[in-house]
């Protein structure tokens, strides 16, 4: 444990369930520190800046669940930092990353002011925030979007602007989206991204059902739900994509909206090779916290089994035989 006084971490700053940080009684050197995780510790701006300035070998930094972090700035002296993660920092207002050698940046929380400048090695970005517009991540990522290879975005409940044209990036190969499957414009959102990333090779769509617990719907039999059938989700014209080979649907449920996502993507891909259906809602049950079905609970596992049966019996029939169909 680190000494509390140099960190500025008194008892009044800690979460009630966080262990107290007692003084070790001796000086601690950070010259060779490479990995640093703060979890449920009230790290202040000054404390974080101290570590960034005094840990020349720091390569990985993660901050989870803190109340005192407001404005974060990374760059300059933090030349070794390659991986930065910030999750659920309750009062965070801004993150500025300038003149840095970051390779990967992950942020999860409320909407913030994100400033990126001169980050030539940044190739992986994940943002799961609460944006008010679907194009907000693109404005904040404009300086590095052309160089990104992997992009992960949460686009649940975003506003739809049919006149918006995203900047085209031909370098992105892997895209992950968390989508609200029942959103009326959900398929139009997918069209945005297919047009923006013409060289995309792998797409993972994590389908979330915001109203599932409030109004559970029965599993839909696809033969009674023809393509383009009526429903909450509006139809969208197919967007031909020549490079996308693999599509993964994560958190799949046999609801009309989820089925429409699969069928829309099949129609849009020119030369698809594989469709992967995964009923486990990994964004709700991450593997590191729920390593097995037992950890997710009997009811959840039973639902997943029902969904697997649905996918194999009904959804597979709609997939051309030339495409490999995998149900995990």
TrEMBL record:
InterPro entries: At1g61320/At1g61330-like (IPR053772), LRR_At1g61320_AtMIF1 (IPR055357), LRR_dom_sf (IPR032675)
Pfam families: LRR_At1g61320_AtMIF1
Sequence ranges assigned to domain At1g61320/AtMIF1 LRR in this UniProt record: 30-325
Protein name (record): At1g61320/AtMIF1 LRR domain-containing protein
Lineage: Eukaryota, Viridiplantae, Streptophyta, Embryophyta, Tracheophyta
């Amino acid at each position: 444990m680190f000494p509390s006084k140099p960190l500025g971490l008194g008892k009044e700053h800690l979460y009630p369930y966080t262990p107290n940080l007692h003084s070790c009684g001796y000086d601690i050197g950070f010259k060779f520190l490479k990995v640093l995780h703060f979890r449920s510790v009230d790290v202040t701006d000054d404390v974080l800046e101290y570590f960034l300035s005094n840990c020349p070998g720091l390569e990985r930094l993660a901050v989870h669940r803190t109340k005192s972090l407001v404005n974060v700035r990374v760059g300059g002296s933090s030349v070794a930092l390659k991986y930065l993660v910030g999750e659920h920092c309750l009062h965070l207002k801004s993150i500025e990353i300038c003149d840095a050698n970051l390779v990967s940046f992950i942020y999860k929380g409320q909407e913030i002011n994100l400033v990126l400048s001169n980050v030539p090695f940044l190739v992986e970005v994940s943002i799961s925030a609460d944006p008010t517009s679907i194009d907000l991540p693109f404005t904040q990522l404009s300086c590095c979007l052309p160089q990104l290879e992997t992009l992960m975005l949460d686009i649940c409940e975003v506003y739809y602007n049919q006149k918006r044209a995203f900047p085209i990036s031909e370098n992105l190969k892997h895209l992950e989206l968390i989508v609200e499957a029942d959103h009326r414009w959900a398929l139009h959102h997918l069209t945005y991204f297919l047009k923006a990333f013409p060289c995309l090779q792998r797409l993972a769509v994590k389908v979330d059902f915001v109203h599932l617990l409030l109004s559970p719907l029965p599993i839909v039999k696809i033969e009674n739900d023809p393509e383009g059938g009526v429903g909450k989700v509006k139809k969208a014209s197919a967007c031909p994509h020549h490079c996308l080979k693999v599509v993964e649907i994560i958190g799949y449920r046999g609801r009309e909206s989820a089925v429409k996502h699969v069928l829309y993507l099949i129609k849009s891909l020119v030369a698809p090779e594989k469709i992967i259906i995964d009923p486990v809602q990994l964004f709700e049950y991450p593997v590191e916290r729920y390593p097995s079905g037992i950890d997710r609970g009997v009811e959840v596992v039973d639902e997943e089994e029902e969904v697997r049966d649905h996918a194999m019996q009904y959804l597979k029939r709609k997939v051309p035989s030339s495409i490999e169909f995998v149900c995990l």
